[in-house]
Amino acid sequence: MKRLRRLSGRRSSRRSEARYLLDGPVLLAEALECGARIEGVYAEPGAPADLLEDVTARGVPLQPVAQGALRKVLDLAAPQAVVAVVAMEPVGFEELCAGAIGSGAPLLALVGIQDPGNAGTLVRVAEAAGCAGVAFTEGSVDPWNPKAVRASAGSVLRVPLAVDVPTGELLGATRDRGLDAVATVTEGGRPPELTELAGASVLLVGSEAHGLPEELLAVVTRRVAIPMAGRVESLNAAVSGALVAFEAARQRRGAEPVRPEGGSVGQNARGDLRPTAENT
Amino acid sequence: MKRLRRLSGRRSSRRSEARYLLDGPVLLAEALECGARIEGVYAEPGAPADLLEDVTARGVPLQPVAQGALRKVLDLAAPQAVVAVVAMEPVGFEELCAGAIGSGAPLLALVGIQDPGNAGTLVRVAEAAGCAGVAFTEGSVDPWNPKAVRASAGSVLRVPLAVDVPTGELLGATRDRGLDAVATVTEGGRPPELTELAGASVLLVGSEAHGLPEELLAVVTRRVAIPMAGRVESLNAAVSGALVAFEAARQRRGAEPVRPEGGSVGQNARGDLRPTAENT
Question: Most buried by CB count within 10 Å: which residue of A71, B53, B66, B70?
Fold first, then answer.
């Protein structure tokens, strides 16, 4: 149980063991279904019997624990009756880039995102929007944090993830491979539907509080800003990232011919929508 | 301080007093700026002096409290050095509908949304996407819950909010006024960009766990489903609502002529994007 507490609460323990925790029967069932490497399962008396049968049928060690035991060790609100120890299988950032180029889909790059709920939500968004994977820069939250795993609703099991990516590597690999780097900004960008997003690219999402660092903004290929009405200064990072990732998916579906960038395309913002400066 | 604890932790107390709490200097500054009815401010020694000067200059009673006193009474992680008691000013659902019709913009209707973070995020989305307001049905979380207020980043101060709206009233008022009711669903809907969303309408967003109730689905005018790749079954409610609300804003900007509904418009989903059934 001490090990579970460490894997739940400490990023360093997850990294050194290359293991993380999945809590609850729904996530465990998904892990079994997608062939995740499950090292062991800890179950309280209330865990679903048929699920536990699947666990033992797969040859995964099953450890019964006392009622309420998981609540004491897991760093989660309302822990459920079963928890699995799963092997994390991160990929390198180079590999993510190769995947993006191969599939013609974007990557999401989370730059300094601290909130585990936002991080997990964006991993789920990446899967749903058909992204090639998610990169977490140094200084971002751990995608295998238990709250992030929950918010991902199992997408951490299926989406290629690169972690601890230095900002320099992000830029270097992007440039070397000719991948467009697209920054999500609050001002000085073009609306997503007027930005070419259909191909392989890296969609950079910064934290709501700090945005993207200058060193990244200085070298990006395009800047996207969601036109905002009212007095809203920024959107939640998960919302911004979702709007850009799903607009990219929409463009890949071919729903709309995107107007070419670089020409003097007029902004369509009108009425109470704040006009947005054009990208350079 | 007992009163602050009640206003922080209990919805019933907020309702009976028609007051709620705003925590932190940023939200308090926004409340002062937009002319909110502030009944009183409680400040620990660390609160910004210039802000407190503004408070007293506005004739708002200022009550100094001991260092750490707010932490003990507020139902919030990392409470800040200042909290304001603010009058809530809800509007009726009829009034929201009139606002939507007058402005030609949609309303968001949150149906059974329980998570305060999602609720607050959607209030902010509503402001940023130029919606006419947000309705919360009976059984939804309170938008004046302290966590929702925080997640709204101050939008609760500016967006017209109707609460405790019975589902029957939602339907009745919508029908009587000829407002389109648009359901956000996971299956059996059209992609947002192929759905007419440019005018006054009610955009219904259900909880991720339960979706929208059958009685509502039976009478909606249109169904929207975000095309999803991978094995994702649903999106976070705040993400779904944001995608639909911002697509409505995009259509109002006139960025794309929407294809007429009702004809046999082919779905453009292809490749790894799950095809979506057409709306009836």
Answer: B70
